[in-house]
Amino acid sequence: MAVKSANLYARIEPDVKEQAESILSALGIPASNAINMFYKQIILQKGLPFAVKLPAAKPIEMSALSKEKFDAEIDKGYVDMLEGRTEPAEKVFADMQRDYGL
What global pTM score does this model have? Predict the structure, then answer.
């Protein structure tokens, strides 16, 4: 008789587990089913089913900037505005919603 299931033991950060299981619960998907789907995607893709890489550009942490660096960032934005390197707010928000689900 073939084994119908196998156990998987993994350590995971409690906060990550809680957040993920909350989302899965809202979707009506048990964690074990989500893990099984993830493993099946690994098999189908012959690797991780998503890109594993560092982001090309990291957002600036404004609160960590010195006054001089903050002023320099504001000046760059002002020059961009003067030289027409801007986008309408509607487009920026639409892009953020598309890319980050905001």
Answer: 0.52
Structure tokens at 81: 């505005």
Alpha helices in the chain (DSSP H): 14-27, 31-45, 67-82, 89-100
Same domain, 66 and 95: yes
Chain mean position to CA 69: 27
For 61, residues 6+ apart whose C-beta sits below 8 A from its C-beta are none
Which residue in this structure is represented by tokens 């587990």?
A: 17
Domain span at residue 78 reads 62-100
**Are residues 68 and 41 both part of a single domain?**
no
| Residue 35 falls inside a structural domain | yes
How does pLDDT run across 9-68, given as a tens digit for each residue? Answer: 999 999 999 999 999 999 999 999 999 999 999 999 999 998 888 777 777 788 888 999
